[in-house]
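During the second half of the funding period, the structural biology subgroup turned its attention to how the target accommodates small molecules. The most pressing case was uridine-5'-diphosphate-xylopyranose, which had performed well in the primary screen but for which no bound structure existed. We therefore specified the complex as follows and requested a full 3D prediction, including the ligand pose.
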Amino acid sequence: MKISVVGTGYVGLVSGTCFSQTGIDVVCVDVDERKINMLNNGQIPIYEPGLEDIFKYNVEKGRLSFTTNLKDSLADSEAVFIAVGTPPDEDGSADLKYVLGVAREIGRHMNHYMVIVTKSTVPVGTSMKVKAAILDELAKRGENIPFDVASNPEFLKEGSAVDDFLKPDRIVVGIESPEAEKTMRKLYKAFLLNGHPILFMDISSSEMTKYAANSMLATKISFMNDIANLCELVGADVSQVRKGIGSDARIGNKFIYPGTGYGGSCFPKDVQALVRTADDYGHSLDILKAVEAVNYRQKEVLIKKIKSHFGVNLEGLKFGMWGLAFKPKTDDMREAPSLVIIEKLLQEGASIVAFDPVAQEEAHRILGDSIVYAKDEYDACIDVDALIIVTEWPEFRMPNFRVIEKLLKSKTIFDGRNIYEPEEMQEIKFNYYSIGRKSVVISK
Ligand code: UDX
């Protein structure tokens, strides 16, 4: 079996590589020549645990290849996956120009039956637009080649994308014909050995499923963040509350960790896009509007705590920062809370020395030299007024506090991820501020 995957971003590259791991021939296509050259030279443009090994293995086996030539890639392909970007345009809706551009190109060049699968996260109705674009190009050519469109949203998480793809909780596929179902079932057969289901449904429901899933998860996070804020005011401990509610199977214990707000390439964009779609249909999704507002506020919650400790004037203060990426195990900085915190601190005249195990290069690309980049976590503590923890990398969980206390100017930690216990900080006499739990204030 052979397929083409158009777009070698996160989703396209991971999907293409993982499909090839099952023995399918995969041609990955991208218009970015630099990226294709890199991939052809064995370099992977993203950091994703486990990807490099299977990438190399399948390239060597000759099952995984990269090209800028979409037309050639279509030869003998049974399916083409569209996995190009859908950046938000000015009003928050997903911009479909890349998706529909690819659809048109497929229409210009296809010469046999194929299933054209939309994998990018796209608003309800997009697959029908893909279909219309292909039909339009075929009509221009005077051709009547049969094809099907399908929707197959991707639920992989950055940092565990390969695992998520190889062992999915479920696969959702929107289809219109038994032929398309047959092709998609064949493609995914190897991933379903763990007993998890492939759910076939109509195309609109499939497109909606992706937005509803991400919006529900974002809602859980904003809900917990706001409950955490209230816990502080009433003297409750959100970690206890989290365990208390999470052991109710109807609520579940995942995705209820408070923090500095959700970031990344999906939640902020998808929540915004769904709000926009609903508005277009004259329906106000008030819950999601609140989810967004709470998330926006949450990214500044550490600044409030910093000011409550140091006073409103932060001019001349220097902060160490652990973690820049929007979450651990990725170098992705998109919508990262660290960016908001850094911007605010710099505006207030403070300076920052930051350390992230993998995102420093990416951070430098975005922030330039507006902050200092430390060589390790201890280096980021030297002579700083306080340490701020923004991303919960595992290597930050058990640091040597004896070393840290000698490096810091004042023994003060602002922990945006609740990775330490207030009691242990009390014992070692650190000022310690976290999210939704009581603060430990030894001295100001
Ligand atoms: C998410 C979805 O999980 C995935 O299914 C979808 O395909 C793409 O979007 P991803 O953006 O990689 O994946 O990150 P995820 O691990 O879901 O975390 C998203 C954000 O939520 C992060 O900023 C994370 O720090 C935050 N988060 C997550 C919390 O603040 N608390 C939690 O309990 C869980």
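Two results from this model are relevant to the next phase. The two ends are 66 Å apart (CA to CA). The chain has a mean pLDDT of 96.
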